[in-house]
Each structure stands twice: as C-alpha cells, then as structure tokens.
Amino acid sequence: MVNPLLIFLPFLSVAALPGNADAAGPDPCAGRRIHIRGLPPRFNTDLLRHCGANAFPLADPSAAATSVPPCESLANHGLGPRTHPRSRSWYRTDARLLEAFFHRRILERDCLADDPADADAVFLPYYAALDALPYVIDPALLDESARHGVALAEFLSRDQAHILSRRHGHDHFLVVAGSAWDYAQSPVAEPRLWGSTSLLRLPELANFTFLTLESRTWPWQEHAIPHPTSFHPSSLGHLRAWLARARRSRRATLMLFAGGASRPSRPNIRGSILSECANRTDACVVVDCSGGKCAHEPVRYMRPMLRSKFCLQPPGDTPTRRSTFDAILAGCVPVFFEDLAARRQYGWHLPPVRYDEFSVHMPKEAVVFGGVRIVETLEAVPEEEVRRMRQRVLEVAPRVVYRRHGSTPELREAVKDAVDLAVDGVLQRIRWRTRALEDGPPERIYAQEEDSVDR
C-alpha cells in the first residue's frame, strides 16, 4: 500500500497562487482574499509524520491492536480510507484530521494572496488538535498543558510580526478539530484537568477566530462548524444521487437513537430515551454505538437512519453530536433537547430562524421531570408535516457536507458546502470587526455580531 504521507504532505507544501481579476471588470476577489501564513512544519505536517510512531493514535480501526499503526486515517488528504473499494463518496473519516483537510481545501480556493498586505484574512494552517494530543494522552505532560500553543504564539510575534500587528490578530483564523471547551482551561488552574489545554486562553491569540466543532455558551473567539460525516461527494451527480436516495427512502420507524446504550445511574435525557425505546420497540430503534462501534462504520447507523422519520439528538458529555449531521444527511428529522445542541452553534450553516422548519425541539427537563413522552409527541405530528420537514432537512443537507477536495467545477459552482460557508462567515466576521476597529469606539468590537449568515 502506498503511504498516504507520500501524497498528502507534498501538496500541503505547494505555494498558494493569488487570484487575478479581469482588469476590465469588477474584481471577483474583492473582500475575499486570503493569505495562508507560512508556518514551520513542526506546527502542521510534521505532526502527521508521527502517526505511526505511537506519538498519537491515528491507526486504522481495522488494524490489530499489536500492529504498528499504518496511518490509514491520512488517506485521501485526511478524509480517510474509502469505506469500500468501489465507493466514490464514503470514507472512514477521523474528525481530528479536519484541520489538515481544511488546509487542503483552502489551498484550492481562488483569491489566495501571496502578500499578506493584500489579504482580507490570514489563515493559520496550525493543526491544533493534533498538537494537543501529547498533553491530553501523556500523563507526564498533564501539568504542561497550559503551554499548548505557546510556541505558535511566540513564532507569530517574532516572525514577520507586522502581519499579526496590522489588525491586532482580528483578521487571523484557524481550525481546531474539537470542542472549544477542551481548549479553554484556565492557564493557572490547579490541579490541571485531564483532556483539556489552555490554547484559547493565550492572550496572544485572543483576537483570532477559531473554527471549532463546538462553541462555548457565550463565544467570542470561536464559531462552531459542522462535525464531518463520512460522506464527501466529488461531483454534483454524486450529491444529487444520495439526496434522491434519502428522499425516496421508505421510513417505517418513527424514531431512532444512535449512541451509547448503557443506562445512566442518574435521571437524564439519555436515560429517558432508552427507557422509552425499551418500552416502545414498535416505534423506536436504538443503534448501539458504545465503545466506538460506529466511529468508522457509517453503514451501521446510516441505513437505520434512512428508515427512520425522526432522529433523537440528546446531549452527552457536551451538547453537540456528529449524529446530528449524519441524521440531516439521511433526511431524518433531528429532535433536539436544548438550544446548545445546534441552534446556538451553527448559525453560518443552519440559519437559526429556520430551525422549526427542519427540526423538533423538546426541552429535556420536560421529558426527564415533566412527564412528556417523546413517542407520543412525535406520533402526534401530522404525516404531511413530517414530509415537509424531511424536505427542508434535505434542502439544508448540502450546507453541512464537506465535499471532497478536487471536486468538479460543476459541484463547486452549484453548492456551497461546509468549508465554503465557514470561510464566508469568517470573512464577514473579520469585516465586521475591522470596521468596528476603524470606524467606531473600541468597545464596539466586543459586541456580539450577527451570527446567522443565510445564503
């Protein structure tokens, strides 16, 4: 097998080419120019080289536990290996490699600027989640977790410091493949909490925009972007074929829950769901994803989702779930139990004002303590309303898909995917903040800008 690194790493070293506007017409790159900040490889590609040396676990899930990790997750520029040799759109995607994949996609964009002085935004190809792994998996480094990102901050302040100082970092953005909560521990916390670092608490990075898989309750630095699914189409035909399959799928099951199937010791929404499903097997299907069973096997949950009308999305350790986006892709109407699960997270991709059109909301307190029955509530939704909601779900599905790198021009022109909308949102946020810095009182920069970007 060809080592994925031999293909992956050289591409990420290719220099960006600036977008050129037609001198006779309007500038298509106005307000859209991005400079990719040059970083030493220790901040990105070198981290990928260590995947087979037990530096961090990125092994093929099918590999024997005693074998050397083959770095299979790096295949296809971070999308992972195909789920089947003949598969054209489905991959065993590891979300931790979203940073590398996003880097690859940024390199494909038009309107890249070699000169940062010409850029509207500066992208940092820093693989933050991978760089954090030693701090969160090595007990010997637990007390050093506050140093995560310090080397990057020192480099940016020392190397071409004018790039950072021009707008005080407000025009810088990067991707962190994880929850913002996992990177927001106080740098002076004692004892240090296992599994988290203080990256977002570094004062040198305070003005950067972090694209995370989950934002905090009152985000200032970060904005949430969709969890990557396993579906990455490369052509408009592949995307339309999948959506057509989801649209015509027969849905005999009322509701589905995909997640850990063990009952919690204390009352909570997951326990209530499992209890109802145990009592109403005629209406509910549970897909047991405990122990990582579903992490790299999309067929395990996508087929049941295609046969279900509603997919339940209870919070777990954190409010958001990848399953939300799997459900949307399957045309299974998501059922949320708190606003932090999606409505207050993904405003650039799922406009908050439209949530009632494609989802159901049930307060978790009403279910756990108020006697509300999920099955009875969903059975009461008229069938015509269910069909309408499913249609709306499939309409927004392309917005949360990460299309494959090197996709066809037809697909790129027809549909804005998760990366496109994230970059559009970043550019809008940077315009808002730089305008506030230039035209208004300094305190305006701390106001919460409009989150929703409906396109």
UniProtKB/TrEMBL annotation:
Keyword terms: Glycosyltransferase, Golgi apparatus, Signal, Signal-anchor, Transferase, Transmembrane
GO molecular function, one term: glycosyltransferase activity
One Gene Ontology cellular component annotation held by this UniProt entry: Golgi membrane
Domain Exostosin GT47: 29-376
Domain of life, source organism: Eukaryota
Signal peptide range in chain numbering: 1-23
Compartments in which it is found: Golgi apparatus membrane
Membrane topology: Single-pass type II membrane protein
InterPro entries given in the database record: Exostosin, Exostosin_GT47
Protein family: Belongs to the glycosyltransferase 47 family.
Protein name as annotated: Putative xyloglucan galactosyltransferase GT19
Originating organism: Zea mays (Maize)
